[in-house]
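Can anyone check this?
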Amino acid sequence: MRYAYYPGCTLHSSAKEYRLSTEAIAERLGIELAEIPDWNCCGASSAHALNHDLSLALPARNLALAEGMGLDVVAPCAACFNRLAYAQHAVVTDEATAARIGQIAGRPVTGESRVRSLLDVVVSDVGAEALAEAAGSKLEGLKVAAYYGCLLVRPPKVVDFDDPEQPTSLDSVIEAVGAEAVDWSHKTECCGAGLAVGRTDIVVRLVGEILAAAKEAGADLVITACPMCQANLDTRQRAAESASSETFNLPILYFTQLIGLAMGVDPRRLSLQSHTVDGWDLLVSKKVI
């Protein structure tokens, strides 16, 4: 299984733990990630609010580079996946758009390289049986809330992945690695995304609602496939506790870190120590590490 790998900006900066855990599990699952040479920022999450053509040309250039490799694209970040999928959808459904965007991007783009989220690759190409075989059963007794957020499964005509209202892909990963996927109400609710700086009050309120729902469902921790979601739920958690007078203390992990833990990957290689809400004691108490 070989893919043109688009890490995006965040996996090389604030979400380095997502990159490290992605690379760690890819090795063990037989996923070959060939990083796209000279890739550029896809424009998430501001380009689409500033210039429509630029919001398509930025990700389209990466698609053109992947087409040159003759490979489908895999993007771990939900926001990157969404923007790349938007660009692909735009160029394959409108010839005039394809020509205009190709000119702006400086190279022709056909949309022939399919855009995949890493979660899709793990669920659809690796499969639950192979994942379970690689993972073992050391996560038994761990209750996990699968948080999809807005961009991973929406809009359905563009991303073409999972159900936009009742997705199950992350839940299936949780179950495959031996943990329990809790049934909860806020798995696709918005965390506030890029409003984290400009309207922190909105993000704190939304984060509080999401974490309260996860806590009420009995979750020990939350997993996600989106760096923006992870950052908001993790770094704004203490503010949400203060605003609501509740104590959540819910570690927010990437799904790749959960898989890595189930496989017995060294927790330091998964960069578990990088998160604001420390989950080390919880994982020790659950005999995960």
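Reply from J.R.: I decoded it. The chain has a mean pLDDT of 95.
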